[in-house]
Each structure stands twice: as structure tokens, then as C-alpha cells.
């Protein structure tokens, strides 16, 4: 048994979803159709390119705690080629603040609550208990990896893990864009003050998410366009007041992936909708 497989099985036994990475920190496809990027992925991409595989089988979505999956096909032959083991922080109930150099580490020491730290090749991973939306480049050389993301396993680290603080959650909140809107951009009116946000009524928001899921599920064609328009509509209604949670977003992504979308297409559609609305 390879060292990487032994590590993966040990993590899986502790309820940490894992996956193998090949050279360049790139995941292997987790089904026969996608082995060797046969589905259209490019070797230098951390997630595959256009993929017709109907399964959710790449990157963070492939992470698993099932020993039978880790030791069975199609992964059984790849462990000897594996360069590193990755894990899905959100699936383990964790958030990783990825600090990419000494300057970022020093900023974290002055700004964020102390927690468990893991040395990396260029900086440190700071690991907190709790999940949130994953966002790259929240500040120079700082990424957040939690839901719908993966991080390399570099050891257990040192220090006591603490609860995810508001200071980290705040890093993922972008200020409203002050740039002049492009022609035909959708204008989302800001919520007026003087009362509780109506989106915080669970029935209101849940009904909106359920309708969005249904719209995606029932799309007879043009799934890509439907997913994007649906994401845009949800963000138009709920994107400015902070009511959307990772659970809501995961529901939308799951509906899209069940319909055949890849994780990458979902992420691109969501990012494009955010950009369109200036969020």
C-alpha cells in the first residue's frame, strides 16, 4: 500500500473527505469516463474543462470517506502516481485560510485569532472549525478554502483549533461595486432601512430557493443558460443582504450538477452572475 493511500485511509477514518492529486496539485477524474482527462479536462487545470460526464466526479466533489471508493477503481491504479493527498475542508466542517507567503502570515498573526497552523511550501494554512464560502484572493496572497474547494493535506499541524471567527467570514464579503454599470446591467435596489430584512424569514427564502431548484430541474434544454439565469435571479433577490448561506448555495449547485452541470460550470455561472450584479 502506498504512503499516500495509507494517509488517505487514515483521514477518511476520521471523517475527512479525501482525494488523490497528481503532479501540479491537479485531481484525478473519479470515474472511468474521466480518467486521464478523457472528458476534456486540461492537464494544467485544477478542475476539468468541458465535461459530458453526468456524474459529480471531479476535484472537491470527488472527495470521499468511503474506503471502498479509495481502494477501488478507478482510483486503485493511481495511488502509485499520486503526488499528494487533498481533502475537502467544508466536508470536514473546516475552513482553511491559505497564507501564501511570509507577509500574509505576518498579517494573519496581527489580524486573526490564533488557531491550528500547518506549514506549507511558501507560507501556512490556518485551520478553523466551521464552514463558509470559498473565495480566492480575499486580500494579497490569501485564499479561503472551505465549501466547494480542496486543500492539500500537509499534516495535522500544531496549536488548538478554534471556531471560525467573524474576521475570516468578513474577508469573503465584497464591498458593493462603485464602477459605472455596463450597458444593460441589471440594477438591484438596495434594501431600505427601518426594519428586519424580509429574506430572513425562513419560509420566504426557502420558497425562493425551492423555486430556483425546480426551474433548473425542469429545464428541457439549454441547461447552461438556465443555470446562469437562475443563479442571476437568486442573487438579484437575495444577494445584497447577506441572507444566502452556504447551504442555500449548495442546494443550487447540487440541482445543477444533478442536471449534468460540472462543478466548474456551476462555479463559473455563479461568479459571472456576481460580476454582472456588481456583488
Short account of what is shown:
The chain is of the alpha+beta class and about 280 residues long.
Keywords:
8 helices, Prim-pol fold, 279 residues, six-stranded mixed beta sheet, alpha+beta
**Major sheet summary line:** 6 strands, mixed
Radius of gyration: 20 Å
Q: In percent, how helical is the residue content?
A: 25-40%
Total domains: 3
Order of SSEs, N→C?
A: HEEHEEHEEEEEEHHHHH
N- to C-terminal separation? 48 Å
Low-confidence stretches: 40-52, 176-196
Shape: globular
**How many helix segments?**
8
Mean pLDDT: 79
Beta-strand residue percentage: 5-15%
Structural class: alpha+beta
* Oligomer class: single chain
Number of strands: 10
Produce the secondary structure layout.
Elements: H1 3-13, E1 18-22, E2 26-27, H2 67-71, E3 84-87, E4 94-99, H3 102-111, E5 116-119, E6 124-129, E7 135-139, E8 142-145, E9 151-152, E10 162-163, H4 166-169, H5 202-217, H6 223-238, H7 246-258, H8 263-277
Parallel strand pairs: 6-10
Antiparallel strand pairs: 1-2, 1-3, 3-9, 4-6, 4-8, 5-6, 7-8
